[in-house]
């Protein structure tokens, strides 16, 4: 029954989000199958000749995508993978063989440690160590001070579960140099690397060029269906292709994912800096609204404790924390969408490691969010909190 209930709740959320006239972001998975397929068929001719034969085991449009991404990131070779989880396991396994050290240094909040079921050790035979547990990327000093040798340093840029946070450019350069001084190679988990350009103030090639290999995703920021790319030296990428086959990633045809990735590169990639800039407007307005007195009063706000993190977002995504249970906030969020046609927050989650009764939401600002003014955000917060308080009462 629990699975059925969750499926019903998901359908309710999807219906509310789709019907909303105003939302900060529309995800590619928010649309019905027919709508998604029709859009792909209508748009794909702008990025690829549809009279060409379909891809077979990675040629055709898939090979074109590989060449395009290798050039974008400034690497000699690229290999398309069905998932980022597979791409990174393969990359780290290849580097372990070359360095002779199967230990990977990474953050405990990095994707392989939190979201992959221990696959690095269980599937790939690798071992992990953590240079820091602070909610940020490690510093050069922490890399130098690591207790034992490691063959690869993996840096997730941005570090999603810490709030989509990034180091400064100088800090990143220093961390990479520190790893090299320890005879380690550097791999970037760049699932969201595309949107780091604004924060670093450097072009993609210069950012990616700090690393020995990089993985990027196509569905997280570029509105693609699925898929990932691993870029690096030619010899490493060729070995990665062999392991991709062994891991079950040599798919017969992948043209829908490849076409949607090319569309994302063509259409969404150039717009990401505008999303990052507007995310800062939205974050500032959220902080102002949550800090304001409750409606109709001159006293305390409805959420006397809240966090917008980072206060100035590093990318077009950031976190909001509120002192309410996730179930209360989720009901208020979906009711607001259903009753007003405004989707401010999509999903809230219990904080996990934090205190009870505190929940966190991830906020993404995309093309739809560019229409929001700061006043729109403040008004939406007021409407949201009215529903939260009606459901739960003011926070303690």
TrEMBL record:
<dbReference type="GO" id="GO:0006567">
    <property type="term" value="P:L-threonine catabolic process"/>
</dbReference>
<dbReference type="GO" id="GO:0006545">
    <property type="term" value="P:glycine biosynthetic process"/>
</dbReference>
<protein>
    <submittedName>
        <fullName>Threonine aldolase</fullName>
    </submittedName>
</protein>
<keyword id="KW-0663">Pyridoxal phosphate</keyword>
<dbReference type="GO" id="GO:0005829">
    <property type="term" value="C:cytosol"/>
</dbReference>
<feature type="domain" description="Aromatic amino acid beta-eliminating lyase/threonine aldolase">
    <location>
        <begin position="56"/>
        <end position="292"/>
    </location>
</feature>
<dbReference type="InterPro" id="IPR001597">
    <property type="entry name" value="ArAA_b-elim_lyase/Thr_aldolase"/>
</dbReference>
<dbReference type="GO" id="GO:0008732">
    <property type="term" value="F:L-allo-threonine aldolase activity"/>
</dbReference>
<dbReference type="InterPro" id="IPR015424">
    <property type="entry name" value="PyrdxlP-dep_Trfase"/>
</dbReference>
<dbReference type="InterPro" id="IPR015421">
    <property type="entry name" value="PyrdxlP-dep_Trfase_major"/>
</dbReference>
<comment type="similarity">
    <text>Belongs to the threonine aldolase family.</text>
</comment>
<dbReference type="Pfam" id="PF01212">
    <property type="entry name" value="Beta_elim_lyase"/>
</dbReference>
<dbReference type="InterPro" id="IPR015422">
    <property type="entry name" value="PyrdxlP-dep_Trfase_small"/>
</dbReference>
């Amino acid at each position: 029954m629990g699975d059925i209930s969750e499926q019903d709740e998901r359908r309710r959320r999807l219906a509310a989000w789709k019907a909303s006239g105003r939302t900060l972001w529309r995800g590619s998975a928010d649309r019905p199958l027919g709508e998604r397929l029709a859009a792909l068929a209508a748009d794909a001719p702008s990025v690829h000749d549809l009279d060409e034969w379909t891809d077979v085991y990675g040629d055709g449009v898939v090979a074109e995508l590989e060449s395009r991404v290798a050039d974008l990131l400034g690497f000699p070779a690229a290999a398309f993978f069905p998932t980022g989880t597979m791409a990174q396991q393969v990359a780290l396994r290849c580097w372990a063989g070359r360095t002779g050290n199967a230990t990977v240094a990474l953050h405990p909040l990095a994707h392989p440690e939190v979201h992959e079921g221990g696959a690095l050790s269980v599937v790939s035979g690798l071992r992990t160590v953590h240079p820091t547990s602070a909610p940020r990327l490690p510093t050069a000093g922490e890399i130098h001070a690591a207790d034992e040798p490691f063959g690869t340093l993996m840096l997730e840029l941005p570090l999603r579960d810490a709030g989509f946070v990034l180091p400064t450019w100088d800090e990143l350069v220093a961390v990479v140099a520190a790893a090299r001084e320890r005879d380690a190679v550097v791999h970037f988990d760049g699932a969201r690397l595309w949107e780091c350009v604004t924060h670093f103030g450097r072009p993609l090639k210069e950012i990616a060029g700090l690393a020995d290999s990089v993985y990027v995703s196509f569905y997280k920021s570029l509105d693609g269906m699925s898929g990932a790319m691993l870029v690096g030296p030619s010899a490493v990428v060729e070995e990665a292709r062999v392991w991709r086959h062994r891991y079950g990633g040599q798919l017969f045809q992948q043209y829908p994912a490849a076409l949607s990735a090319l569309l994302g590169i063509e259409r969404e990639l150039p717009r990401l800096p505008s999303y990052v800039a507007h995310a800062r407007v939205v974050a500032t307005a959220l902080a102002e609204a949550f800090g304001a007195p409750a409606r109709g009063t001159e006293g305390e706000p409805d959420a006397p404790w809240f966090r917008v993190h980072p206060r100035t977002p590093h990318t077009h995504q950031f976190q909001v924390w509120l002192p309410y249970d996730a179930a209360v906030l989720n009901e208020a969020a979906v009711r607001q969408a259903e009753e007003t046609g405004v989707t401010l927050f999509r999903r809230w989650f219990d904080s996990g490691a934090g205190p009870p009764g505190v929940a966190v939401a991830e906020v993404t600002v995309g093309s739809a969010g560019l229409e929001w003014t700061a006043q729109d955000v403040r008004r939406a917060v007021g409407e949201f909190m009215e529903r939260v308080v009606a459901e739960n009462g003011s926070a303690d």
